[in-house]
Write a structure and sequence with these properties.
With 362 residues, this protein is mainly beta. It has helices at residues 3-15, 238-246, 266-274; strands at 26-30, 36-41, 46-50, 54-55, 58-63, 83-88, 95-96, 117-118, 130-133, 139-140, 152-155, 161-162, 174-177, 183-184, 196-199, 205-206, 223-226, 231-232, 252-257, 260-263, 283-287, 293-296, 301-303, 306-316, 319-326, 329-338, 341-346, 357-361. The protein has 3 helices and 28 strands.
């Protein structure tokens, strides 16, 4: 087969996934300032989409809001529809309208430094895992990133408003709210897995159940840093709210120990962030009246050489609260290292997993 034939096949395969866009693929209107808003898209809504910085010689500054229930680049209808998996946004872009890229398969997005607003549900129901929102963005609309797979988000200082349900139903673990954010909307982070939260800046208007659950008024958050007073209603859950109020709504570090909130230290906060056992735990331990063994490293827990999944829930006064699980057992216990031995107490499960008592290093 000659080179031209091979090249032709490669181009056909490549074209089957990355479709070149032409000006005729885009429906547009000219704004009063002479710039362009994209109001519709007639090209194939699958694979990779590149949005040009200019159309018809004019700068593209906006992607319009949803029209008749569908976003500009959402809801493909072709029989072979697989969804947009990648999109390149132009540096000229200032606004992404409501539902613009909803219901696709986008896993990564880079926002231009020109961007100022992200509309309601603009990227909902995609496959995003990490996002970095630039400081030029001032407003994020309701549900903009809901129902994705976001584990890490950077919210830059400059954003003033995060509307309702923006990050709902994402596996977020840690979150920093910057100084500039003045308001957090209803259920903005509901259904996440946030354990560590930092709230920075002046007094904020925080709506109901921002971090909690409508059904339980609670969340999985176990460590909080607040560096200024906050206006809120049910910021995390009743337990934290009551303790925070009883402390005079003071700035500081708060740690959850079991059902109880207490003030904490930076060292305790860092231990929860790192989710590791202290170095003094490393090694194999045996209880005087118990033949089995427990083995710790910085990141693992073994009982008789069987791995247990675990999570550090809280640290207070050198007492570590651990949640553990295995296919046949699960529970919580507290562990404290003193004078070369560890003391364990709590929910020990079955006789096989009865770890309560004093353990000494082998």
């Amino acid at each position: 087969m000659n080179r031209k034939a091979v090249l032709g096949i490669v181009l056909m395969v490549f074209a089957g996934f990355v479709f070149a866009q032409s000006e005729s693929d885009f429906e547009v209107i000219q704004n009063r300032d002479g710039k362009i808003t994209i109001t519709g898209y007639k090209g194939r809504r699958t694979g990779r989409i590149v949005i040009p910085s200019k159309l018809y010689g004019l700068d593209v500054t906006e992607i319009g809001d949803a029209n008749n229930g569908g976003g500009v680049f959402s809801d493909g209808h072709e029989e072979d529809y697989r969804g947009i998996v990648s999109v390149v946004l132009p540096e000229s872009l200032k606004k992404i309208g409501s539902y613009a890229f909803g219901n696709n398969a986008i896993s990564n997005i880079v926002f231009p430094s020109s961007l100022e607003e992200i509309g309601e549900r603009a990227f909902s129901s995609n496959r995003l895992t990490n996002i970095n929102i630039p400081s030029t963005v001032k407003k994020i609309g309701g549900g903009a990133f809901s129902d994705n797979q976001i584990r890490n988000v950077t919210i830059s200082d400059g954003i003033t408003s995060i509307e309702r349900e923006v990050f709902e139903n994402n596996p977020l673990r840690n979150l920093v709210i910057p100084n500039s954010v003045a308001s957090l909307g209803y259920c903005a982070f509901q259904g996440t897995q946030i354990r560590k939260l930092e709230i920075h800046g002046a007094r904020k208007n925080i709506d109901d159940w921002v971090f909690g659950f409508r059904e339980t008024s609670d969340s999985g958050i176990v460590a909080v840093i607040i560096d200024a007073n906050a206006q809120y209603s049910n910021i995390i859950g009743e337990g934290f709210n009551n303790y925070y109020i009883s402390q005079g709504r003071k700035a500081g570090i708060y740690i959850k120990r079991g059902p109880i909130w207490t003030t904490g230290t930076q060292e305790e906060y860092d231990a929860i962030e790192q989710n590791t056992f202290p170095s003094g735990f490393a090694g194999t331990w045996k209880r005087d009246d118990y033949n089995n063994t427990l083995t710790f490293t910085r990141n693992t827990l073994k009982a008789n050489n069987q791995d247990f999944h675990w999570n550090l829930l809280s640290v207070a006064d050198n007492v570590y609260e651990i949640q553990y699980s295995r296919s046949t057992a699960a529970g919580k216990f507290t562990i404290k290292l003193t004078d070369g031995k560890i003391e364990i107490s709590g929910d020990s499960g079955t006789d096989e997993n009865n770890w309560n008592g004093t353990w000494r290093k082998q």
